Amino acid sequence: MENKGTRNLYMIPYALWIILFVIAPIFLVLYYSFFDIEGNFSLVNYKNFFTPVYLQMTLSSFWYAFLITAISLLVAYPTAYLLTRTKHKQLWLLLIIVPSWINLLLKAYAFIGIFGAYGAANNFLEWIGIGSRQLLFTDFSFVFVSVYIFIPFMILPIFNALDNLNPSLLYAAKDLGASGWTTFRRVIFPLTIDGVKSGIQVVFIPALSLFMLTRLIAGNRVITLGTAIEQHFLVTQDWGMGSTIAVFLILIMFLFMGLTGFRKRGA
Amino acid sequence: MTNSAIIQFHNVTKQYDQDPPVLDRVSFEIERGKFYTLLGPSGCGKTTILRLIAGFTEATSGDIYFNGKKINHIPANKRQVNTVFQDYALFPHLNVFENVAFGLRIKKMKKSEIAAKVKEALSFVNLSGYEDREIKEMSGGQRQRVAIARAIVNEPEVILLDEPLSALDLKLRYQMQYELRELQRRLGITFIFVTHDQEEALAMSDEIFVINKGRIQQSGTPNDIYDEPINRFVADFIGESNIVKATMIEDFLVSFGGGNFECVDQGMNPNEPVEVVIRPEDLQITSFEDGMLQIEVHSQLFRGVHYEITGLDQEGNEWLVQSTKKATVGDKIGLQFEPEAIHVMRFNETEEDFDRRLDSYSEGVADGK
Ligand SMILES: Nc1ncnc2c1ncn2[C@@H]1O[C@H](COP(=O)(O)OP(=O)(O)O)[C@@H](O)[C@H]1O
Ligand SMILES: [Mg+2]
């Protein structure tokens, strides 16, 4: 009994943290979402959300988040696979993870330099004869930089899943006649799908609400739900509408977690 | 090249980096339909031999033949061999049925045919009705059987088993020894079984290869290897034995432990230094005076069926005796043995020379020499 008591005691800091910084803000957001710009209680924000402007925004958020996640996955899976085959894999992994410790803003500014009219990227294009062009403030640069930023988070869970794979399973598959591709399709991928799912979660959800990059790299040409929330809180001062969008964003996140969280069993 | 040989190793060497070779010019033949055991201490290269046969690794030099065809560079998924792995290597995301069906699905067999074959394979290993179980719901012994079913369902010509019983408890192990042997007889497939347990090897095999430090020390039937070990390593590794330094005075006369004894061995140089093996169960206890050899008893253990007595002779050799008679620690007792119980081993004799020498005995006897 005493054991249980002390355990509950240890839970207090964590519980307090969750209540203060997770549960309370969610309720605040929910609360604000029911007030219009004049401060009157109403459901007008929810009605507004279902107008073409916001639906369009939601759709484009989804589209970019999907692109970023898909490209990250396509790059991260083979990279993680190669990493598990290298001799000093923990060192290589560290080298890939380290950039994610650098402040997002710093990286964004670095890319402004690289993609700028006189940046390294254009110098290179000039040099290979394609000629310089507008890189900054394009969809391409937005997706490229986002992928760059999110890739470590995609690699890490996939790397762990691949690294935990029992190598004798791969021999067993070969032994039973499977080619390299069949082994991948029927053994490696199904056994690392949980790593892929966590990777997708940690990339897709933040990508849905990206806002800083949309301004710095995409020059506000890409308006995502994240940008909209930022604008409502900082520019138009319409906290109610900003909160409403946030409520939908939270709902989408839970929905997404639910969808990707399911474990398939059997064959 | 006998035409019943299904696998042949020809001076196969396997070396990693600059380390001493893991396998050193290994040559052997595996005949169709027999139960073979690779026996040797941990690290001697048993798994490496299986991996070479399965195609998971390539030989540094030497040739490997399968059905008379060189297979050095044939990839594992194209070989007519299936493996039962030491850790079973069952696919955790597939249930029992799908694990067993894995190889058949790759061959693109018809669904109904797969179902029938899997059912048959599972009934072979007494797992009928377990089709829908998840692997993690199966016990160690059951997983073992799934692994065997997954191999036999492909109807390979050879099945490789890498210490498949080492993870099981003693009782289950004995049971599986019987079942595996029985299964091999019923299927008529060649089994190559790896173990470091000499009792297991003796109980199950048609042929045993005793391996040490990457070389085959001796090959033969369990009886051959037990009764006529080629050297100290084999004698020591297989069963309990007394191994003492001796001198071969002349043909049929060997000297050790302070006496000269009649024996059945011949063909060595006069006064050649040799080693003699006598199995503990071939020694009988008698009175001090009647003994051919005298020892002073310094320990005795009751083993249920027999007493296990150890003592030293006058030259200081230690002797282990298994006897139903009891002795007293500190007493001096006599030991008796038959000439046939003495097995003489020459130093550094090759397997060919050893076999030739043993063969000459029977001819010599027939000649009435
Ligand atoms: N990939 C490898 N690299 C280097 N040495 C290896 C490798 N695989 C096995 N060995 C070495 O080969 C020797 C024989 O190994 P193995 O065939 O697994 O022995 P056994 O199965 O008889 O216990 C061991 O000393 C082991 O360390
Ligand atoms: Mg081994």
Automatic annotation (TrEMBL), chain A:
Ranges for domain ABC transmembrane type-1: 58-260
* GO terms of biological process kind: transmembrane transport
Annotated TM spans: 12-34, 62-84, 91-120, 140-162, 199-219, 239-262
Which domain of life does the protein's organism represent?
Answer: Bacteria
UniProt-annotated location(s) = Cell membrane
Q: Which GO terms describe its cellular component?
A: plasma membrane
Q: How does it sit in the membrane?
A: Multi-pass membrane protein
Name the SUPFAM superfamilies for this protein: MetI-like
Pfam families from the entry? BPD_transp_1
Keyword Transmembrane helix assigned: yes
Task: Read off the InterPro entries from this record.
Answer: MetI-like, MetI-like_sf
**Its family?**
Belongs to the binding-protein-dependent transport system permease family. CysTW subfamily.
Protein's name according to its UniProt entry: ABC transporter permease
Lineage in the entry?
Bacteria, Bacillati, Bacillota, Bacilli, Bacillales
TrEMBL record, chain B:
Q: Which domain of life is it from?
A: Bacteria
Q: Which Gene3D superfamilies match?
A: 2.40.50.100, P-loop containing nucleotide triphosphate hydrolases (3.40.50.300)
Q: Which InterPro entries does this UniProt record tie to the protein?
A: AAA+_ATPase, ABC_SmlMolc_Importer, ABC_transporter-like_ATP-bd, ABC_transporter-like_CS, Mo/tungstate-bd_C_term_dom, P-loop_NTPase, PotA-like, PotA_ATP-bd
What keywords does the record list, in alphabetical order? ATP-binding, Cell membrane, Membrane, Nucleotide-binding, Translocase, Transport
Which is one Pfam family of this protein? Answer: TOBE_2
**Subunit arrangement?**
The complex is composed of two ATP-binding proteins (PotA), two transmembrane proteins (PotB and PotC) and a solute-binding protein (PotD).
Cite the SUPFAM superfamilies for this sequence.
MOP-like, P-loop containing nucleoside triphosphate hydrolases
- Which Enzyme Commission number(s) are listed? 7.6.2.11
Q: According to its UniProt record, which protein family does this protein belong to?
A: Belongs to the ABC transporter superfamily. Spermidine/putrescine importer (TC 3.A.1.11.1) family.
Q: Which PROSITE patterns match?
A: ABC_TRANSPORTER_1 (PS00211), ABC_TRANSPORTER_2 (PS50893)
Gene, per the UniProt record: potA
What is the reaction catalyzed? ATP + H2O + polyamine-[polyamine-binding protein]Side 1 = ADP + phosphate + polyamineSide 2 + [polyamine-binding protein]Side 1
The protein's name in its UniProt record: Spermidine/putrescine import ATP-binding protein PotA
**Record-annotated ABC transporter domain positions:** 7-238
What role does this protein play?
Part of the ABC transporter complex PotABCD involved in spermidine/putrescine import. Responsible for energy coupling to the transport system.
GO terms for cellular component: ATP-binding cassette (ABC) transporter complex
Enzyme superclass (EC): translocase
Does the keyword ATP-binding belong to this entry? yes
Question: Record's SMART domains?
Answer: AAA
- State a single Gene Ontology molecular function: ATP hydrolysis activity
Q: Which NCBIfam families match?
A: potA
